[in-house]
Amino acid sequence: MFTGIVEERGEVVNLQVAAGVTGAGDLAAADGGSARLTVRGPKVTADAAHGDSISVSGVCLTVVDSTVDTFTVDVMAETLLRSTIGELAVGDAVNLERAVTAATRLGGHIVQGHVDGTGLITARTSHPAYDEIRIAVGRDLARYLAAKGAVAVDGISLTVIDVVDNEEGAEFGIGIIPETREATTIGATKIGSRVNLEVDVVAKYVERLLAARDRESA
User: Fold this and answer.
1) Per CATH, is 117-208 categorized as 2.40.30.20?
2) pLDDT (tens digit per residue) in 175-204
3) Which regions in the chain score pLDDT beneath 70?
4) CATH says 8-98 is which class?
5) Where are the domains of the chain?
6) How many CA atoms lie within 13 A of 146 on its CB side?
């Protein structure tokens, strides 16, 4: 479990994918499609051990190897299909956060590192004290978003400003303060970029419980 408070920006130093595939979709469709990713992140690697969990731009991944300042993880097909991990290249920056401990401050919100899907940045507006970013999502995720609710964008815990429903799904806004802009990868994201999204897990459980109740009463 994570809090969505990014500890540092890491850098992809190696990415190995299955031979003969060109993208995350192809790789995910392949038999046993997977990738191996190595990331430089001195802070999160300082106490990393085999089997530890580290959030990489919102995706919870398991450390299989580490050095003084790098760690390596395996990425399975499902993760490549649902996230932007399969689009990474050597030199790309990623947001990093170690799993919480019993003594960790819960500065953001409960983030599992289980990406629900991706969104598309449609607009970016600079204000004196913050940037406002608009993100489009499909119907599968739109129903879980609410104004003043929480959402994890590339592993960053953020508050939803508003949600505007449309035929395709919805578009929602988030505000990025200068600290978040400087400390994470979202400061460099451009219109048209895809970002990893994880909606509030409570919303998903409530939906399932209500659906089960409706089935039982039918």
Assistant:
1) yes
2) 999 999 999 999 999 999 999 999 998 888
3) 18-33, 218
4) mainly beta
5) 8-98, 117-208
6) 8
